[in-house]
Amino acid sequence: MAFWTAHCNPEDGFCNLTVEALCENATPPAVTLLETKLQDARFEVEDRINWLHSSVLTHRNTPSLIQMADRLLDTKIPSDLKIALVDTFFDYQPALWFSPATLLEPPPRTALTAEGRQALEKLAEKAKKLPGLPPALVAKVEATEALVKKMGPAKP
């Protein structure tokens, strides 16, 4: 944790790599550090949104990251960042988020665990109540909810 903390500071050039490592690790200390960095106003909002649309996106089925997003919606982070959180967990816009050379894809929803499904359903309920959420994104949240419910109970 000390290494990751030391290598995730504004303008240090290591943040993207550190954020990817934190998402891959996804242990409680790693997620806590990521959550702290996402709330850190020293980082540009656009940089934090890019972390969401890259590293978090590719791990968006991870229960601890879904739970982190749920907690972040209750914080005082900028509204643009909150909307990007919802985007990351419920939508996928490769044409807007990536160039053809840097295309990343989210994991399939069928890979969600029971814990992940439960956390995603809770996040969806909170996300739909987020002030200023565009109607098109509300529709994506609702579509994901329907898909998860249609999948039935997850195997633990």
Structural account:
The protein is an all-alpha fold and 156 residues long. Helices cover 62% and strands 0% of the residues. It has one domain (2-150). The chain is globular and about 45 Å long. The mean pLDDT is 93.
List the helices and strands and how they pair.
Layout: H1 2-6, H2 15-25, H3 28-39, H4 45-56, H5 63-72, H6 79-90, H7 94-97, H8 114-128, H9 135-150
Short précis:
With 156 residues, the protein is mostly helical.
Overall pLDDT confidence:
93
The ordered string of helix (H) and strand (E) elements is HHHHHHHHH
Number of strands: 0
Helical content (DSSP H or I, runs of 4+): 55-70%
Number of domains: 1
| Poorly predicted sequence stretches spanning 5 or more consecutive residues | none
Structural class of the secondary structure composition?
mainly alpha
**General form:** globular
* Rg from Cα: 15 Å
Number of alpha- plus pi-helical segments: 9
Instruction: Give a quick account of the main beta sheet: strands, pairing sense, barrel closure.
Output: none
Task: Please state roughly what percent of the residues sit in beta strands, choosing from under 5%, 5-15%, 15-25%, 25-35%, 35-45% or over 45%.
Answer: under 5%
- How many angstroms does the end-to-end distance come to? 29 Å
Please describe the structure with a list of short key phrases separated by commas or semicolons:
156 residues, mainly alpha, 9 helices, 0% strand, globular
